[in-house]
Write a structure and sequence with these properties.
Elements lengths: L2 E6 L7 H9 L4 E4 L8 E5 L2 E5 L12 E4 L4 E2 L1 H13 L8 E4 L3 E2 L2 H10 L16 H10 L14 H20 L11 H15 L3 E2 L1 H10 L4 E4 L25 H6 L6 E9 L2 E3 L12 H9 L12 E3 L1 E2 H10 L4 E5 L9 E10 L2 E3 L6 H6 L1 E8 L16 H14 L3 E5 L7 E3 L22
Bound molecules: inosinic acid.
């Protein structure tokens, strides 16, 4: 069962792109299965920088097939921009990229709804979405009546469907916009139809039944890499709701988003930063809105790739990451950006929360309790100097090794990958049976006898 998943265990931006790029050479197919153009990653390959959002970075290799499945909220204009950008720089996309005919489409009304509704959450603080129309697109998917999927664009009734949806959306948006002080500019059905049909023609060669393609592939023994977008704490069902994204961004989303049952996956890599970041609203118990946070933000260049917003930074939260590692069925850990906390005299790791005077190591299910959680910290020594030149585990200072070991112990999984900089060479791969790893699987995580 040679399928691998890469899942972010925090609030996204765990530098998964670099890891996916490294793992791609061991796989035949790379799959993006949830989220949309709210994600963005930068890949440096052969001295060139590539900024990709919907298309897996595997597209940069000739021998790898790339798939965008039906679980993705697909903005046609965004994916066409990416295809054109790649082709204009000599990358072949045709024949390598397949996009599911089941993918739900993001339309201009979704972007308008995102803008109007983000600030009107009941309970105060805005979600702070990326403004890419992702939530409204998924809402229409679940609501069904106003949803349009990629495959619908090639059916005879598409013009009538667009006309119908635009009329309803204009009424809804005019109502929602009422009271904001801004006049509502109605969408023009003819313009929407012309843009959509142009997109349909450009995307036609890429449209496929990706579920059938992937099931054939796994049954034939192809090696498939599933690339998670965002992070598990932003999972719509299991994250810090309502301050989440609109898809299953933890490991539980792989099967529903791709159509490939989880039983085909034999390696799940949980990716964490050596500290925590979050962009947008919502609770973040270990946030450091002070000098420490500033140190991490500047050294880690912690500004959003999609929106350029400064990210909120803080200490590593082992309560949250242990929860998402378990939720995602993680086998092993990749700790990214270990170079960033360098230069701090001591580091803190959150090992428990106090909620209303009671200590807990369980991540609370309600946002109000997460908001009230007071972190219980353990201090560990920091390390002076830079790690950028380290190429082997033993090159790391003892304090950095101690920090990694403690993270592995608290999360109950071995740290097998460590990143100390953006280049591929700045990646330390470790044998999971090396001394010092916690035994895995731990007895309590083993499959029950007879199951
Ligand atoms: P949306 O996904 O645009 O609806 O945004 C919902 C929340 O998820 C906001 O807090 C965003 O900042 C956050 N978010 C969405 N995509 C990403 C990502 O790729 N990295 C980090 N945060 C994200």
């Amino acid at each position: 069962m040679p399928c691998t998943c890469v899942i972010g265990l925090q609030w996204g931006d765990e530098a998964k792109g670099k890891l996916v790029d490294i793992l791609t050479e061991q796989h035949d197919i790379v799959v993006r299965y949830q989220g949309g153009a709210n994600a963005g990653h930068t890949v440096v390959s052969n001295g060139q920088t590539w900024k990709l959002s919907l298309i897996p970075s595997g597209i940069l290799r000739d021998d790898v097939a790339c798939v965008i499945t039906g679980g993705v909220a697909l903005d046609p204009a965004s994916v066409i921009r990416e295809i054109d950008g790649l082709e204009s720089r000599g990358v072949t996309v045709a024949g390598k990229l397949r996009i599911s005919d089941r993918a739900h489409l993001v339309f201009p009304w979704h972007v308008a709804e995102d803008r109007v509704l983000d600030g009107s959450i009941s309970g105060g603080e805005a979600i702070g979405t990326t403004g890419r129309g992702i939530g409204p697109c998924y809402r229409d998917k679940v609501g069904r009546a106003l949803a349009i999927r990629l495959g619908d664009l090639y059916r005879d009734d598409i013009a009538a469907r667009l006309e119908h949806v635009v009329a309803i959306k204009n009424r809804l948006l005019a109502g929602w916009q009422d009271g904001t002080g801004r006049p509502y500019e109605p969408l023009d059905a003819a313009t929407v139809r012309a843009d959509t049909m142009r997109h349909a023609e450009r995307l036609r060669p890429f449209v496929a039944d990706t579920t059938a393609f992937l099931l054939d592939a796994v049954e034939a023994g192809s090696r498939v890499l599933f690339e998670g977008a965002q992070g598990a704490l932003l999972d719509i069902d299991h994250g810090t709701f309502p301050y989440v994204t609109s898809s299953n961004s933890s490991g539980v989303g792989v099967a529903s988003g791709s159509g490939v049952p989880g039983r085909w996956v034999d390696r799940v890599i949980g990716v964490v930063k050596a500290y925590s970041t979050r962009v947008g609203g919502g609770p973040m118990p270990t946030e450091q809105p002070n000098e420490i946070g500033g140190h991490l933000r500047e050294r880690g260049r912690e500004y959003g790739t999609v929106t350029m917003r400064p990210r909120r930074c803080g200490w590593f939260d082992a309560v949250a990451a242990r929860y998402t590692a378990r939720l995602s069925g993680v086998d092993e850990l990749a700790v990214m950006l270990l170079d960033v906390p360098g230069g701090l005299e001591e580091l803190k790791i959150c090992t428990a929360y106090m909620v209303d005077g009671r200590r807990t190591e369980t991540f609370p299910s309600h946002v109000d309790d997460i908001r009230r959680a007071v972190p219980v910290y353990e201090s560990v020594p920091g390390w002076p100097g830079e790690l950028a030149a380290c190429r082997a585990y033993d090159d790391l200072p003892a304090a950095a090794r101690g920090y990694l070991a403690r993270i592995g112990e608290l999360l109950g999984r071995p740290v097998t990958i460590v990143s100390v900089g953006p280049d591929r060479e700045q990646t330390i791969l470790r044998d999971r049976s090396a001394p010092g790893h916690p035994a895995w699987p731990r007895p309590q995580f083993r499959t029950p006898a007879g199951a």
